[in-house]
Amino acid sequence: MKRTLVYVGPTLSLAEVARILPSALVQPPVAVGDLMQIVLGPPRERPARIAIIDGYFERMAAVWHKEILRAMELGIDVWGASSMGALRAAELAPFGMRGVGAIYKAFERGTLTADDEVAVAHLPAEHGYTAVSVALVDLRAAIAAAPMLTKVERERLVDTSRKHFYRDRTWEQLVEDGRAWLATKKANALAAWIGTGRPSRKAADARLLLRTLAKTPAKRPPTVRVPRTWAIKQLENWLDDP
What we know:
The protein has 242 residues and is an alpha/beta fold. Helices cover 46% and strands 8% of the residues.
């Protein structure tokens, strides 16, 4: 039986992916060319499904929309959630890419619009892709759930977090931002509350995607035709060049 490829890095550990979806073939965060290599490879080696959770976007180019569409054109069922997967699923939903989770829905509705909402800095593969910053969507979730904050205080903290470069967004920075203007007692309460649990909307959506895949058979996506543009041909030539 053809397998499901899952592109994941900082959002979930390999062990958790294997526990929820034992049949998954786990891949590193997706980058430009990864799906085109599958498209250009032997048909018998193509997966039944591709699930995108994490993807590169800064140190290398992000996965192209058209290579996702090329995979779908060949009958591969492509899903996305949580991070890069949520972005691409929202952008390509009209063409048949399937999205899961609250973050995907927020991008699809236009409630979220900025790519850096899901961006995190993380360590390399040899360190398990461990995240060293916190996604703005996860900071939003924590701020929204913090019981000691008023609506105005929540909005101000979200706005302050948004102004930080994505690599500088951390739980410690969130607490420091609160201490800058919250009353001392409230700032201490926020710090203590953050210390007891740090919710991750991204991780929750990634788990939901894996659970959904575990109980949903793969199916051929809607028919899509991808024009062989100059850029696609250049990417194919680059991948074919030894």
